[in-house]
Design brief:
2 copies of one chain form a homodimer. Chain A has 104 residues and is mainly beta. Chain A has one domain (15-101): Sandwich (Jelly Rolls), CATH 2.60.120.10. Chain A has one helix at residues 6-9; strands at residues 2-5, 18-24, 29-35, 40-44, 51-58, 60-65, 68-73, 76-81, 86-90, 94-101. In chain A, the strands form 2 sheets. Chain A has a 5-stranded antiparallel beta sheet with strand order 2-3-10-5-8. The longest helix of chain A has 4 residues, at 6-9. The A-B interface holds A 1-8, 22-23, 25, 27-28, 30, 50-51, 53, 55, 57, 63, 65, 70, 72-81, 84, 86, 97, 99, 101-102 and B 1-8, 22-23, 25, 27-28, 30, 50-51, 53, 55, 57, 63, 65, 70, 72-81, 84, 86, 97, 99, 101-102.
Chain lengths: 104, 104
């Protein structure tokens, strides 16, 4: 059993999004991404079994999908297959939590 | 691919904590629990393989563990084995997201 605080651990960078590993195990990987306004996790996919969630903790932006974008604001959560193209772009500073099961 | 908003979907009840299923698949189950101040998810465990996370979205309370309690506030995330005793109690109204991998 372990606890951490995402807001205290996760920092921002003017150069590019900041990625912090929250947890990794054979069951799931949890990653915190912090974006300054304008930064993004570019759309991508992996040919692997499994699913992931992209949860917005703070701020506002848009999810990137193969066929366009979807609004992404605090409380929103997207779930998709790891093999489906996905990404996110920040309009304001933004904290995001990604969970991948099972890990890549 | 699907999106939802945890804050819009999840309601509160004066009678007991409110549980809403966010997502369920062979890979992970995501559940939103909303607690009014004083409500709790009592400490429990299951003799199953896997891990879970308990993430505080809003509010304040305490995690329940076999050997005592740990503070739980917005941004905190606890990760433990499904077989380890775990629970949470709200001091203020509280929104929590639980992820179980693989699902029970």
């Amino acid at each position: 059993m372990k606890t951490m605080n995402i807001y205290q651990e996760g920092t921002f960078s003017d150069k590019a999004m900041k990625k912090s590993l929250v947890h990794d195990s054979p069951y799931f990987r949890i990653i915190n991404f912090n974006f300054k306004a304008g930064q993004e996790l570019p759309i991508h996919s992996h040919e692997l079994e499994g699913e992931l969630s992209i949860q917005v903790l703070e701020g506002e932006g848009e999810y990137l999908a193969q066929d366009g974008t979807l609004p992404a604001k605090a409380g929103d959560i997207l779930v998709c297959a790891i093999s489906e193209p996905h990404g996110i772009r920040a309009k304001t500073d933004m904290r995001v939590l990604v969970t991948i099961a099972p890990p890549l």
